[in-house]
Amino acid sequence: MRRLVAVFGVLVLLPIMAFAAVVPYPATFHRQMVQTNGTSLYVRFGGQGPAVVLLHGFGDTGDMWEPLAAVLVRDHTVIVPDLRGMGLSAHPDTGYTKKNQALDIAGVMDALKVERAALVTHDIGNMVGYPLAVGFPTRITRWAVIDAPLPGIGDWDNIVRTPLLWHFNFRGPDVERLVAGRERIYLDRFYNDFSADPKRIDEQTREHYAALYAKPHAMHDAFEQFGAFAQDAIDNKALLASKGKISIPVLAVGGEKSFGAAMADDLRFVASDVTVGIVPASGHWIMDENPQATIELITAFVAK
């Protein structure tokens, strides 16, 4: 009878988690501005044991990882920065190539005296994760890469021509004027178009990120992330040509209604040990749309 009650409790909890709002990190996490590579990143970190670095993408900040971080921190050291120019990190005028931002993250690891770590990335975080894994092969032990391609790699040239990705070239002073004060409208487009079910990204979550992206320089710097893609593609091709494929274990995770198994196809261009992971009933926003399945995939991979 007790087992039946426990199972029922889990079944009741799952829908709640699937629609969970953004919540603060547990009190066991520290929060600190870390000086690195000529800028300052806002970093959440806590726990003990093997280290895991979690990198977010556009439309989110490191806040997206809280449900996963709260699980991993039980037996890992968990490090969650906001990327350069995003969230609560500093807003430098330059430095938005992903190769340079990889140096930002290596500097965070140095500051926290973390020599080696597993890496979990989403969206633009993937693009920072690749030069980090290539540039620091003894420091990144394994990599879970989630639902976004790498500039210049695989089918990138066709992917960027997809009409849904018009926003990659939507930038400049006049664009920033159009979006200013309308950040919520702009972000809603991404949450609605790239999710399997827009209702899974709740009102509180949308308002939370809209407020962060409405901060001074935040949207400008988000556009700079896109603006660096052409150089990122050049950098990635050069890294692949000079360094070859990375050999660490890679879990290529796609949302069932987004990249799906194509994530693994893309990562096989740059990695020799790639496993497929699918987040069911999810589009691009895996931690909002199906956090439970995402957590199960990542924690099992990191624990290996």
Task: Describe the structure in your own words.
- The chain has 304 residues and is an alpha/beta fold.
- It contains 13 helices and eight strands.
- It has helices spanning 2-18, 66-72, 98-111, 124-135, 156-159, 173-179, 183-193, 203-213, 218-227, 229-243, 262-267, 286-289, 291-302; strands at residues 30-36, 39-46, 51-55, 77-81, 117-122, 140-146, 250-255, 274-279.
- The protein has an eight-stranded mixed sheet with strand order 1-2-4-3-5-6-7-8, with helices on both faces.
- α3 (98-111) crosses α4, α4 (124-135) runs parallel beside α10 and α7 (183-193) crosses α8 (203-213).
- Residues 1-18 have low confidence and may be disordered.
Helix/strand/pairing category = alpha/beta
Chain-averaged pLDDT: 93
Q: What is the CA-CA span between the terminal residues?
A: 34 Å
How many separate helices? 13
Q: What low-confidence regions span 5 or more consecutive residues with pLDDT below 50?
A: 1-18
Helix % is 40-55%
Task: State the oligomer.
Answer: single chain
Largest sheet: 8 strands, mixed
**Total strands:** 8
Strand order of the largest sheet: 1-2-4-3-5-6-7-8
SSE order, one letter for each helix or strand: HEEEHEHEHEHHHHHHEHEHH
Measured on Cα atoms, how large is the radius of gyration? 18 Å
Give the percentage of residues in beta strands.
Answer: 15-25%
Shape: globular
